[in-house]
Amino acid sequence: MNTLSYKTVSANKNTVNKEWYVVDAEGQVLGRLASKIAIVLRGKHKPDYTPHVDCGDNIIVLNADKFVLTGNKMDTKEYITHSGYPGGQKSTTIQKMLAKTPERVLENAIKGMLPKNRLGSQLFRNLYVYTGTEHNHQAQKPKKLDLTKIK
């Protein structure tokens, strides 16, 4: 066996095949949904996954306000932000966030599971979250994504 004939092939932005998928969040548990979407955004479900390249797919999430939380997270979970100034810490509950901007809850969950660098910011731009069942990406011909097949 000639081991010199094997080459490790790394994907780059020219060789990556990006797909468009639609996910329905209705009835899905928030954390499990977010982790599977993060895997697809990152491209870890593909055989040509390369850690330093955006080789993931584009995801459209519909019904982002109809996810499910387990336990009593609806009452106790808080999101904390800080402005950077002394005394600039603010906290809001998940109920207030759902009332004001329901898609932001799912976006925060998914963004927390992506890398905290330039690649993570680039991957997050491939996510499109909508509260209803309508989206304006019909021209890309998105396919329905079955989340049960993603491990």
Query: Uncertain regions: pLDDT < 50 for 5+ in a row?
Result: none
Major β-sheet, in short?
A: 4 strands, parallel
Radius of gyration: 18 Å
Q: Indicate the multimeric state.
A: single chain
Shape: globular
Mean pLDDT, to the nearest integer, reads 93
Strand order of the largest sheet: 5-2-1-6
Q: Supply the number of helical segments.
A: 5
> How far do the termini sit from each other?
34 Å
Topology:
Elements: E1 20-24, H1 30-42, E2 58-62, H2 73-76, E3 78-82, E4 89-93, H3 94-100, H4 102-111, H5 118-124, E5 127-129, E6 143-144
Parallel strand pairs: 1-2, 1-6, 2-5
Antiparallel strand pairs: 3-4
Helix pairs in contact: 1-4, 3-4
What does this structure look like?
The chain is of the alpha/beta class and 151 residues long. 27% of the residues lie in helices and 17% in strands. The chain is built from five helices and six strands. Helix 1 packs across helix 4 (102-111) and helix 3 packs across helix 4. The two termini are 34 Å apart.
